[in-house]
Design brief:
By secondary structure, the protein is an alpha+beta fold. The chain contains 13 helices and 14 strands. The chain folds into two domains: 215 residues, no CATH class; 241 residues, no CATH class.
């Protein structure tokens, strides 16, 4: 009688022990499979979050560092200008498909009536003082809220976020392109153009914020925007209807001598959101001074979105380790008790000349057969168990994150926008996870299950089979 046939007969005879082993194996395989499936789903969710946030990386001033330094030293540090040559060299990276310069400053209308401006308040009312930001002297310039407006300098207008997301669109004329460098041209919003009876081809005069410079620009395009001010009933200066777009190089002609209010940013549009980390690594090798500048790929929002996902990924990895170790120990104990109960059988077989390796092989066949049955069952139950575990862990993490969230922030992330302005952005954490089982998951789970089966069988069997038949039979008495 060969050892394989004996193994099959033994499993039938000891049906209770076989069922217990199969139940333990089924629990282990389901939990391990769930752990691998959740890790894969977490990675897919993280990739999806990256794609949702887009494949753009912004190079600009690191205002958090600057504010921290200012608090420590008591004065705003003098920031060097962004190395444009280095920024353009970085734009030639294999990961970049296009790029855009964005900078902002304040202009003063010269003969224009701004949308929302109060009657008879062209120059005196609604004034405010604003101090210079990093790079300036720290002196303040006086701002007339009724005659001042924002000007945004760009390399390509259609790459600006408002035009990309469809909130703004050109309705007459043409947009600003990279070929218009240093040209005195501008885009004007439809409401401002209608209020001042301006059409494409007309020229308007704009003064710098300190009124020391005047620039005449040609309106080459009229755009319409659905953007809303960050506050209700904003003053003209903050009304999106009063924003002009110019080539970024032209805007430099309007920078105030005191309290420089502009800070250039470069937005790199990558071929794939998954290239972001590689692009950042490449950028660190450039001569750009990252003591003052930073590359931001919506990192704060990304962390906000995938925070719960990362937590359940680490939890699922811990589950794999704990279940694998605990499963091996439990199975080892059960198999050890089973083998000890079969000392007489082993002693007799060894006495009649059966080889020890065949007895080892018999035990191995028994356990592997049971493991295979449990593995087959887990194919039917694994997906549902994995999804249940994933949903439970994720809902728990989201609930914990909600409790820890600062009510004053309400999930908001403040990011620096063009010209160093603060923009309030929010993104909800990922609250759904699609757990699916792949062939790779099954392969890894099968490998772990087989390793557990072999270890759980070999160690107890060796502890007994190292004895000779007489010793085994005497221990059984």
């Amino acid at each position: 009688m060969n050892f394989i046939k004996r193994a099959i007969l033994s499993m039938k005879k000891r049906i209770g022990t076989s069922l217990i082993l199969m139940a333990v194996f089924l629990i282990v395989t389901n939990l391990v499979l769930g752990g691998f499936a959740i890790q894969n789903a977490s990675q897919k969710a993280a990739d999806s979050a990256r794609k949702k946030l887009g494949a753009d990386v912004t190079l600009g001033l690191d205002f958090d560092k600057l504010v921290k330094q200012a608090r420590e030293t008591g004065e705003m540090p003098i920031v060097p200008d962004l190395n444009i040559k280095e920024a353009e060299q970085l734009a030639k990276s294999q990961y970049v498909k296009d790029y855009n310069y964005i900078t902002g400053t304040l202009g003063i209308s010269d003969g224009l009536k701004l949308v929302g401006a109060s009657e008879g308040e062209g120059g005196g009312a609604g004034r405010a003082a604003m101090a210079g930001v990093a790079g300036g002297s720290g002196s303040a310039i006086e701002i007339d809220m009724n005659s001042s407006f924002n000007i945004e300098g760009v390399r390509k207008a259609l790459l600006q976020e408002s035009f990309k997301n469809g909130k703004s669109k050109i309705i007459d004329g043409k947009p600003i392109t990279e070929k218009m460098e240093d040209q005195n041209v501008a885009l004007m919003e439809k409401r401002l153009a209608e209020q001042n009876k301006i059409k494409v081809g007309d020229k308007v005069k704009i003064q710098s914020g300190d009124k020391k410079k005047t620039l005449e620009v040609e309106i080459i395009g009229i755009y319409e925007t659905e953007e809303q001010g960050i506050i209700q009933n904003p003053p003209p200066m903050m009304d999106p209807a009063n924003k002009l777009y110019m080539p970024h190089s032209t805007l430099k002609k309007l920078e105030a001598d005191e309290g420089n209010m502009s800070s250039i940013q470069v937005v790199y549009f990558l071929n794939d959101p998954l290239d972001i980390d590689a692009f950042k690594k490449e950028a660190k090798q450039s001569d750009i001074d990252f003591k003052y500048f930073k590359l931001d790929a919506h990192d704060s929002l990304y962390k906000q979105m995938i925070g719960p996902i990362e937590n359940i990924s680490s939890t699922s990895q811990m589950i794999i380790y704990i279940v694998s170790i605990a499963g091996a120990i439990i199975l080892g104990l059960i198999i050890m008790l089973s083998i000890k109960a079969r000392r007489k059988e082993m002693g007799i077989l060894l006495s009649i000349g059966e080889e020890k390796w065949k007895l080892m092989a018999q035990f191995m066949v028994e356990v592997v057969c049971i493991a295979i049955l449990a593995f087959a069952l887990s194919l039917a139950t694994g997906a549902k168990v994995s999804q249940f575990i994933g949903d439970s862990l994720l809902s728990s993490e989201i609930a914990t994150a909600s409790e820890e969230e600062n009510p004053q922030n309400s999930g908001a992330v403040m990011v620096s926008g063009p010209g160093g302005t603060l923009q309030n952005e929010t993104e909800d954490p990922i609250d759904e996870i699609d757990v699916s089982i792949t062939g790779a998951d099954l392969g890894k789970m099968g490998g772990i299950g087989l390793a557990i089966a072999i270890l759980a069988t070999l160690l107890p069997a060796l502890s007994i089979l190292r004895l000779n038949p007489k010793q085994i039979l005497l221990k059984d008495e």
